[in-house]
Amino acid sequence: MVKGVIFDMDGTMFDTEHLSTVTWQMTGEKLKLDINDRLIESFRGGNPAQIRKLFHEALGPDVDYDHVKEVKHAFFEMLTEKDGIPIKKGLFELMDYLREEKIPMAVATSTARARAENIIRRAGAYEYLSACVCGDAVEKSKPEPDIFWKAAEELGCSPKECLVLEDSTAGVLAGKAAGGFIIYIPDETDVPAEVLDGITGRMDSLLDVIGWIKEVNRKRER
Questions:
Q1: Helix axes 65-83, 48-59, angle to 10 degrees
Q2: What are the two backbone dihedrals, phi and then psi, of residue 136, each rounded to the nearest 5 degrees?
Q3: 125-140 as b/e, with b when 16 or more CB fall inside 10 Å?
């Protein structure tokens, strides 16, 4: 049975991968830096230390990454203050269902804790969670499974009893390695077919996950 659900945050719960792309582009234009699409794509799924490393490898060690990050975050705040945190289809329907069924939920995100918790709280989703494991809480980031193992532990479940919901290549690889159920929900970037081989399923939105959990748990109860 599915005894716990672990959400990736950016691109799975919230439509923030698109916002991240836009704000990186705005930052590059403002600061006259070559923050191109290939570099932005390399950041996806990385923890703060990995992103910093990739940034300096691409743009040089003398570029002040902390200042660049502050500018990017300011653009993000400006856009979300105006329009709110963009919610992915079916998020609250799924979370309401899981709460009714007493299936605990966690977030496992490569984003640093202070920033992740701020986004989740502003979106109104934090009260649903039993755990929030962030990129600065584990040494090995996605595609390693450590962050999902830690989230399962904090939920009090075996990783094999948890459903991981992901949208990125690194996240799907980590979810597969964690050993439980893994459902891929496409977002900004297509995950290669070879990475999707062996996953539990591919669904169009979080709404579709409700019926799948009902069916799986019903079969296991028989």
A1: 120
A2: -90, 10
A3: beebbbbbbbbbbbee
pLDDT for residue 221: 65
Predicted confidence (pLDDT) at residue 6 exceeds the cutoff of 70: yes
- Percent of the chain at pLDDT exceeding 70: 99
The pTM for the full model equals 0.90
Q: Is the peptide bond before 186 cis (omega within 30 degrees of 0)?
A: no
Question: In whole angstroms, how large is the CA radius of gyration of the chain?
Answer: 17
d(CA 142, CA 172): 9
| H, E, C per residue of the chain | CCCEEEECCECCCECHHHHHHHHHHHHHHHHCCCCCHHHHHHHCCCCHHHHHHHHHHHHCCCCCHHHHHHHHHHHHHHHHHHHCCCECCCHHHHHHHHHHCCCCEEEECCCCHHHHHHHHHHHCCHHHCCEEECHHHCCCCCCCCHHHHHHHHHHCCCHHHEEEEECCHHHHHHHHHHCCEEEECCCCCCCCHHHHCCCCEECCCCHHHHHHHHHHHHHHHC
Counting residues of the chain whose pLDDT is more than 90, the rounded percentage is 85
Alpha carbon 157 to chain centroid, angstroms? 20
